[in-house]
Amino acid sequence: MTLPVVWLPEADADVPTDRASLPSSRIEPLNAISEPPSTVRLTAAAIALCTLALAGCTGRLPHGVAEQYIADLQGFNYVACYKALTGQDRKDRALKDFLAEIPLAPDVSPLWFKPILHNTHYELGEVHRNPDGTTAYVPVKVTAPDLPLWERTLDAAAGFDGSGADAALRSLDTGDFPKWTYDDRIVLTKERHRWRVVAGFALKDRVADTRREAMVDFQEHQYDKAIATYRQMTATLDKLDATGAMGFAARYRRELADIENAKAQLAETDAYAPKLKLNDVAMKMSDERVPAIFGKVINAGDKPIDDIELAVTWYEGRGKDLKAAYTEKHPVFLTPIEFTDFTRSVFPLVPRQAQTFGFIVIAPVEVQQDGSPYVTVSSITFAQSKAPLPKIVAASADATKKPLSASPASAQPRPRASASGQPPTGPQGVAVAKPKPAAKPQASTPQSSNRDASH
Predict the structure, then answer these.
(1) Are 315 and 324 in contact (CB under 8 A)?
(2) Quick one: 350 and 337 in the same domain?
């Protein structure tokens, strides 16, 4: 490295040289002027080295480490981001696994990672040092694409026969996408006199597992259970001293708001359920060669629907002896509230739209043989997203989504017996047309052979 050289002008003739008669502020310049050129160069080199050393010290301070982490992240230097982590975090997560969950990076598939990261912006605040002297954090304001809203908006624009993924990259390139801003932190701790970024993978893993379970509860309309779990998760993340924890908490709070809204709308959704019409409901053999129920559900109301669950009730007996022997429930339409990486359509069942369905029945064999199945709409969820709705046309009104194949029994929710053993006033719901048993082949009368006839 070539060190810079400071050039100084020669002294003028009228500059006094009596040091005692000069102000103290003029003594040092005269010293520099009076030194030989080699001394001047050495002095300049020392200044440059001190400047570099000062810059290095600043880079090793908490704010400098945070700045460098963000610079490496936005520069796609993931190895450097990994090296900035604590020893425990690197022990908990190998580099290849770290690439799928980099703190503060978008939680998306590799296909969309770089384009979305390129459109994510980070604004660092002032460092906050804790009294222990060994921990600190730097606030970060993150502005990023609103992924669930972005995906639904593009899917709606593409329509039932298209895919929002086709316009996604163009949307990012032009900046034409919805954004959201949230607060996060880069948490740091001192290890062997060096500040390291705290990721906290171990606890984040447990929270992620819990969220998956809570999402299943929500999709099965167990709202109270899902809400309690989400509140516990966000409280845990709020207390977690780890980089990116606040961002996860902000994201989960948005999902929690959707679940709370769904619960608040229960009375309204119950009143709306009769507006979903069931047509062509029949029992047939599935591809797995087991009994399944197929049909079509039509949204005859005026609201978009994100989730539809059907109940199959098997009735036995006749007249006053009629009773519900068994009930099973099956989801037949589900639009996720989270970002799916454009792997599936994420628009709701809009008014006048029809959706075919099929699911394998899971009632005991003896119930299937003796009982008569009736199908009802057991529960629904209104669409919570603010995204525009896809426009429905006559050609797509009856074939808007790829028909659902009969789901295997292993994918069905746990069956629940009928809540009441009292005989109902009559079977509730749409009767399922059961296949007629095949007629037994008639025993053919043996024909006499020509040889017998000849005798």
Answers:
(1) yes
(2) yes
